[in-house]
Structures are given as structure tokens and as C-alpha cells.
UniProtKB/TrEMBL annotation:
Biased composition (Acidic residues): 374-391
Name of protein: DZF domain-containing protein
Domain DZF, chain residue ranges per copy: 26-381
Gene3D superfamilies, per the entry: 1.10.1410.40, Beta Polymerase, domain 2
Organism annotation: Porites evermanni
InterPro entries membership: DZF_dom, DZF_dom_C, DZF_dom_N, ILF2, NT_sf
Coiled coil region boundaries: none
Subcellular localization(s) per the UniProt record: Nucleus
Amino acid composition bias (Basic and acidic residues), ranges on this chain: 399-409
Length: 409
């Protein structure tokens, strides 16, 4: 066997040093807690009065209004959801549909959370089956729902498309409902890849149910939903934020807005403070390797929510947030929020060098570059464990991202 460099001497850019590595199987070693300006407010008293951010707050509210679906659009989605839910509930108790084994129907995703975006009239329903769903069962259920809809609506057409994890049904007015099929948790271990739906998709659908329930219980304040919409919009417009999943955005918005844990007033943070705080948390490395991050409240075992991100995505999120925060601190909120001003061309604040009141802001540079160098035999077998483990997405988040967010990415 070749003798080369010792394990303790190996390393490289972007690779965690050996003394910081945890036991085998542990993806992240918590080496630091992110600096939070809200938590540290008592330790850093202000020397000057706080600036007036009325204009910034009004801009946030205006952008949220622009992103909120119209009443007509929401009505179309609500109407289709009600019809499909009624049909599925009827199939649960209908004797001649007993072979389908329907157990329960749950509204999930952005529709349930109240965070839909304008121009995306899409709702998600999770259907729990008593047995493991197969491709033929999905097609049979989708056909029954479509047939019943046509019988109820006469000549109206309801296009249907089945897929690996469920089926989609559209209405003539443009609304879309995606039905995600899953099963009881006790059945997951018996799944046969050759016959049943991919277990990752089944786990992902179950995760959407847990996420919707948690969000309903903990993100009840209107401003939290406002933050979710704003950051979903940022993810669409800024490349560096594209790694953020809807669940990460939900957790970030809730953490940035809820003040019950961070001050004595027991009152939520104002929306302008919460928005800035969210960018500050991302800028200070909330979703970087080794960060305490946010513990996923819907998973057991103290799983850190940002473990679903690759190292490239973690670096891009932090870099983009730092650039936007520097621009925001110099008054560039209209450009960040994409609020057009007459006579002023749009500027790519995340990729172009910009000037705000005489202050030059240069976009941040990558801190992590993925290495493609050749390793020795020992290194090829073991050297990249940390990168591979950090980049691997959990099955629940991977499936949920695939099923829940195509309409908003």
C-alpha cells in the first residue's frame, strides 16, 4: 500500500480541518454561533439616534402588495381546491372506492400557509393512502377525480397529468392543484422500488404536512407571511439565493420576525427591522458550514435545516446577502425590492459595481471553490467525505423542493 500524506496533514480550500471533524456520519460540527445584532443589542448601545425608516417600511409594504395574488386569482384556486377536496373526501367513505385506500386529505404548501405569489395560482394537497401507492393507483385516482369534475361542471375541461409522486389538475380559469400521494409512516420501510412510488417522494409529502402544521402554529403573524413573500421574490431575482428552499425561507422569516425569544417586550419586530435582520443573519453565516444555524423543528435528532444545501449554495447565499446588505445600508432598498422608479434604469446590485451616495459597493467574491484535483488512492476513498456529506440533501427536503416549489422558482 502506498504511503503518502498522513490524514492529519490533508486538507485544502473549503475543506474542514481534521480537528473540527465530528464522528462518522455527522454532517456538521457546530463550531460557532451566528452573530445576531438583535440578540447583541444590549452589548452594543447606539451612539446616535436610529434613522427614520418610514420610506423603507412603505417600500416593503408596497412590494408585498405587488406580490400578493389578487382576490380573483385566490378565488379561482380556492374554488378548484374545494371541488377536488370534496371529491377526495367522498372517495374516502364511498364503498366502491375502498380499493383505493384513501385515509386523509391535507392542504399543504404555499396555499395552506398563505404565502402564494401573484401569477402562480397553484395549490398543493397531500393525500395519505393506507397502503403504499403505485403508478397504477395514481392513474386510477387521478382519472376518477377528473371524471367527477367533468360530470359536475358539464362541458368544462379539466386537463390532468399524472407524475411519479401524484397528479396535477387544472381548471379552465388557470388554477392548478397538485395532489401529492403518500402513505402512513409505518409503511415506508416496506416500500419496493420496483413496484411503489419512490420512498423519497413519499417522505417528502409527509414532510409538507409537518411543515404546514408547524407554520400554522408558529407563523401566525401577518408580517411573517410578508417576509416569506419578499424572500421568495428575492430568490427568483438573485442567483445567489436560488439555493434557498421554501422551508428554509419559512424558518428564516419566522426566526427573523419573532421577538418573543430575543427581547423583553414580547412584541414582534417591525417589518423593516425583521427584513434587515434576516439579511444580517444570512450575511454573518447563518447557513454556513459549522454554524449553529436553525434546528429543523419538524425533524428528530437536532438536524440543522441548512444541511440540505451544498457548499457552493451556502457560500453563494452568504455572499449575495452581504452584497445586498451593504447596498441596503446605503439606501438601495428600491433596487433590492425591484420597485421601479421612473427615469432610473434597473441595476443588478448583486453582480455589478454600484455607487450609493458616493459609496462604491463591489459585489462579494466566492470564498469557496470546489476542488477537482486528483487524490491518491487513500484520498479518493476518504478525502472528500466532508464535502459529499455536506452537499447531500436529506430525502424529505429534496422531495419537498421538487414537489412544492416549481411554481415559485
Amino acid at each position: 500500500m502506498r504511503r503518502g500524506r498522513g490524514r492529519g496533514m490533508r486538507g485544502g480550500p473549503g475543506r474542514m480541518p481534521p480537528y473540527m471533524r465530528g464522528p462518522p456520519g455527522q454532517k456538521f460540527v457546530v463550531s460557532h454561533s451566528t452573530f445576531d445584532p438583535v440578540l447583541a443589542d444590549n452589548f452594543f448601545p447606539r451612539t446616535t439616534p436610529a434613522s427614520d425608516e418610514t420610506t423603507f417600511t412603505q417600500a416593503l409594504l408596497k412590494r408585498n402588495q405587488e406580490l400578493t395574488p389578487t382576490g380573483q386569482e385566490q378565488g379561482f384556486v380556492q374554488n378548484l381546491v374545494t371541488k377536488i377536496t370534496t371529491i377526495l373526501d367522498t372517495l374516502i367513505v364511498t364503498p366502491d372506492a375502498a380499493e383505493l385506500g384513501l385515509e386523509e386529505v391535507r392542504a399543504v404548501g404555499s396555499y395552506k400557509k398563505g404565502t402564494m405569489l401573484l401569477g402562480h395560482p397553484v395549490a398543493d394537497l397531500a393525500v395519505i393512502i393506507k397502503k403504499l401507492p403505485t403508478e397504477s393507483l395514481i392513474l386510477e385516482l387521478a382519472t376518477r377525480v377528473q371524471k367527477t369534475l367533468k360530470e359536475q361542471e358539464g362541458l368544462a375541461d379539466f386537463p390532468m397529468q399524472s407524475n411519479e409522486g401524484g397528479f396535477n389538475i387544472s381548471s379552465p380559469d388557470g388554477a392548478l392543484v397538485r395532489v401529492l400521494l403518500t402513505t402512513l409512516p409505518k409503511n415506508l420501510q416496506e416500500a419496493d422500488p420496483a413496484k411503489h412510488v419512490d420512498v423519497k417522494l413519499l417522505e417528502g409529502a409527509l414532510a409538507t404536512i409537518r411543515h404546514a402544521r408547524w407554520f400554522e402554529e408558529n407563523a401566525f403573524h401577518t408580517s411573517t407571511r410578508l417576509l416569506v413573500r419578499l424572500f421568495k421574490d428575492l430568490r427568483k431575482r438573485f442567483t445567489g439565493f436560488q439555493g434557498l428552499t421554501p422551508w428554509l425561507i419559512d424558518l428564516l422569516a419566522t426566526t427573523a420576525h419573532r421577538a418573543a425569544m430575543v427581547n423583553s417586550s414580547r412584541q414582534p419586530l417591525p417589518v423593516n427591522v425583521a427584513f434587515r435582520r434576516a439579511l444580517q443573519l444570512l450575511s454573518s453565516g447563518l447557513f454556513l458550514p459549522g454554524s449553529l444555524g436553525i434546528i429543523d423543528p419538524c425533524e428528530s435528532g437536532n438536524v440543522r435545516a441548512h444541511s440540505v444545501l451544498s457548499l457552493e449554495e451556502q457560500d453563494a447565499i452568504c455572499t449575495c446577502a452581504q452584497t445586498l446588505l451593504r447596498c441596503l445600508n446605503h439606501g438601495a432598498f428600491n433596487e433590492i425590492l425591484s420597485l421601479g422608479q421612473e427615469g432610473i434604469p434597473k441595476v443588478a446590485v448583486d453582480t455589478e459595481v454600484t455607487s450609493w451616495g458616493g459609496v462604491i459597493v463591489t459585489p462579494g467574491q466566492k470564498a469557496y471553490e470546489k476542488q477537482h484535483d486528483q487524490e491518491d488512492e487513500e484520498g479518493e476513498a476518504e478525502g472528500d467525505d466532508d464535502e459529499e456529506e455536506s452537499a447531500e440533501m436529506s430525502s424529505q427536503e429534496q422531495a419537498e423542493e421538487k414537489m412544492e416549489t416549481n411554481q415559485e422558482s
